[in-house]
């Protein structure tokens, strides 16, 4: 849901903000006032490409800021800047991100429904997803996807076995050679790390023994530190008979003696534990050299060497047992295929059963939108086996029929901008809260609409606003009068430069705007008509 949008230096807008309601918000104004700048700002906040042409003339950059709440409590604050040279910068919650990352975060929650921005509705993949969501096919879709994934894994495993079975004699000989070389060493990651640690100690055994021996003698030898510390403690103890202050010094020094005695004992044990055997050192060095040879050939790490051995072993195993392994893999693939076909049939059957009802409900809403006998068909076609995808075995497509006796064709080939917007409106009404979109922005939806149909369109938008946040750019007073919030877009000149202003209106200001929309001018009669319209709605 859009909580707030702040626009600076975009098109004709110098500085303006809107705070849409959670229900129905309308923007009205004279033709050419700049109402569609709202769509431009929304597209920028959704990750659309920023064009230098959107920057207000005479300024360095356009800036659009927005705050959104997605899935209830998740707050997103977006700052999108487009400079006059066409460069674009994006911040999402204070962090610099790419335009693609911005689109991933927000685009799915906002649907721009206009002649140029309803492209998502034209995709058959979208039609399939909407039909499944409306029908509540989540369980069937999940079961099919799991079956499809399992079948794909079984198919890949069979292909791997067949490829291994067809290995040439040269490939088999190479795998055998690799395995023989590696198995001769029997590498282990843990052993290599232990060898490296032990080698340094073994190679420097004499120096280590000498250093530890010197330290031991300095601590506990006949003329070592412990001898003099013992004398110091005894002297302090004697003096403490006359002054207790010396007793504290003696106790502290005595604790130090205990610590040094422990260190001296440990150093002595270290010296006694050092053993130098040239044969053992030679064996260790040879073992490390063997490891390093394998790592140069099959590494760079011991883990890579072990993996290479496993790969060679698997290749040899497949070659030796290719026939039995292939039979097992074929049997597994047949079972997976049977399960996949069963899941596909169940999902396709559900889609076929609900498609007519789904389209019928869309047509019911369209009938109120001055679309005559126009309608839609939800066509579900079972695809050939080699065209099945993770989404299912069907192609689902909404086709538009301009009139009762005309052939239904894909929306992208027939529907005009106004028709497309109204079909999308009807579709969202039928979907209720089952789609992923939380905010709908409509432009040109009232093209060619008037009279009683305008009231019906307003009723449908109000109905839709119960499940979505709805923003509408409209010329219909009947729609504007039903809004929870009403913004007016006006264009004027300041020092010879055109500028657009967006203001929230209520009370008398709103009455005057609706009066203008009703009659083209504000008169006592049109204001009375506007008041009557607003009063009728409030009742």
Task: Summarize this structure as a short list of keywords or feature phrases.
single chain, 539 residues, alpha/beta, 6-stranded antiparallel β-sheet, 6-stranded mixed β-sheet, 18 helices, 55% helix, flat
Shape by Cα distribution: flat
Which parts are unreliable, with pLDDT below 50 for 5 consecutive residues or more? Answer: none
What is the number of E strands? Answer: 15
Mean pLDDT: 86
Main pleated-sheet profile: 6 strands, antiparallel
Structural class by sheet pairing and helices: alpha/beta
Distance between the termini: 28 Å
* Proportion of residues in extended strands: 15-25%
SS field, number of helical segments: 18
Biggest sheet strand order reads: 2-1-4-5-6-7
For the CA atoms, what is the radius of gyration? 40 Å
Work out the helicity level: 55-70%
Characterise this structure.
- Strand 12, helix 15 (451-464) and strand 13 (469-473) form a beta-alpha-beta unit.
- This protein is of the alpha/beta class.
- It has 18 helices and 15 strands.
- Helix 4 (138-165) packs across helix 11 (302-320), helix 4 packs antiparallel against helix 12 and helix 5 (169-185) crosses helix 11.
- It starts with a strand and ends with a helix.
Produce the secondary structure layout.
Elements: E1 2-10, E2 13-18, E3 24-29, H1 37-45, E4 61-70, E5 74-83, E6 88-92, E7 95-96, H2 99-106, E8 110-113, H3 124-135, H4 138-165, H5 169-185, H6 189-203, H7 205-220, H8 225-239, H9 245-273, H10 278-298, H11 302-320, H12 322-366, E9 375-382, E10 394-401, E11 409-410, H13 411-414, H14 417-431, E12 439-443, H15 451-464, E13 469-473, H16 477-480, E14 485-494, E15 497-504, H17 507-519, H18 524-538
Parallel strand pairs: 3-13, 3-14, 8-12, 12-13
Antiparallel strand pairs: 1-2, 1-4, 4-5, 5-6, 6-7, 9-10, 10-11, 14-15
Helix pairs in contact: 3-12, 4-11, 4-12, 5-11, 6-10, 7-9, 8-9, 10-11, 12-14, 14-15, 17-18
């Amino acid at each position: 849901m859009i909580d707030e949008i702040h626009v600076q230096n975009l098109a004709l807008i110098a500085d303006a903000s809107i705070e849409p309601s959670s229900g129905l918000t309308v923007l009205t104004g004279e033709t050419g006032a700049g109402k569609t700048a709202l769509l431009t700002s929304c597209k920028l906040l959704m990750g659309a490409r920023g064009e230098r042409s959107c920057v207000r003339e005479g300024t360095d950059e356009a800036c659009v800021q927005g705050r959104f709440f997605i899935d209830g409590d998740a707050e997103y604050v977006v700052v999108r800047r487009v400079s006059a040279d066409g460069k674009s910068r994006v911040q999402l919650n204070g962090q610099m991100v790419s335009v693609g990352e911005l689109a991933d975060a927000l685009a799915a929650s906002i649907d721009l429904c206009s002649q140029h921005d309803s492209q998502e509705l034209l995709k058959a993949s979208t039609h399939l997803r909407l039909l499944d969501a409306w029908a509540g096919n989540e369980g069937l879709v999940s079961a099919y996807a799991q079956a499809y994934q399992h079948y794909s894994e079984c198919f890949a495993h069979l292909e791997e076995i067949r490829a291994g079975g067809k290995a040439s004699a040269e490939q088999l000989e190479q795998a055998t050679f690799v395995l023989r070389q590696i198995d001769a060493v029997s590498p282990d990651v843990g052993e290599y790390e232990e060898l490296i640690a032990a080698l340094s100690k073994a190679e420097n055994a004499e120096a280590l023994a000498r250093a530890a021996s010197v330290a031991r003698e300095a601590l506990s030898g006949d003329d070592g530190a412990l001898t003099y510390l013992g004398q110091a403690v005894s002297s302090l103890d004697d003096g403490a008979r006359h002054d207790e202050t010396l007793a504290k010094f003696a106790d502290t020094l005595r604790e130090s003696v205990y610590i040094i005695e422990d260190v001296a004992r440990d150093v002595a044990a270290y010296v006694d534990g050092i053993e130098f055997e040239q044969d053992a050192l030679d064996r260790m060095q040879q073992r490390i050299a063997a490891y390093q040879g394998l790592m140069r050939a099959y590494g760079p790490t011991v883990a890579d060497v072990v993996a290479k051995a496993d790969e060679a072993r698997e290749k040899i195993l497949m070659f030796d047992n290719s026939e039995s392994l292939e039979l097992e893999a074929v049997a597994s693939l047949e079972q997976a295929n049977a399960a996949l076909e069963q899941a596909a049939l169940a999902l396709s059957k559900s889609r076929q059963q609900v498609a007519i009802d789904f389209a019928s409900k869309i047509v019911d809403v369209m009938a109120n939108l001055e679309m005559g006998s126009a309608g839609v068909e939800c066509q579900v076609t079972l695809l050939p086996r080699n065209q099945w995808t993770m989404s299912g075995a069907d192609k689902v497509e909404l086709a538009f029929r301009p009139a009762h006796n005309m052939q239904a064709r894909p929306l992208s080939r027939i529907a005009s901008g106004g028709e497309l917007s109204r079909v999308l409106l009807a579709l969202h009404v039928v979907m209720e809260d089952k789609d992923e979109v939380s905010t709908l922005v409509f432009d040109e939806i009232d093209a060619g609409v008037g009279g009683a149909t305008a009231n019906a369109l307003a009723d449908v938008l109000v109905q839709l606003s119960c499940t979505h946040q709805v923003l509408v750019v409209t010329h219909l007073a009947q729609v504007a009068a039903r809004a929870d919030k009403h913004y007016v877009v006006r264009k004027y000149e300041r020092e010879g430069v055109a500028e657009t202003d967006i203001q929230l209106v209520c009370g008398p200001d709103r009455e005057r705007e609706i009066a203008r929309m009703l009659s083209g001018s504000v008169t006592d009669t049109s204001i009375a008509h506007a008041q009557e319209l607003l009063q009728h709605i409030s009742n």
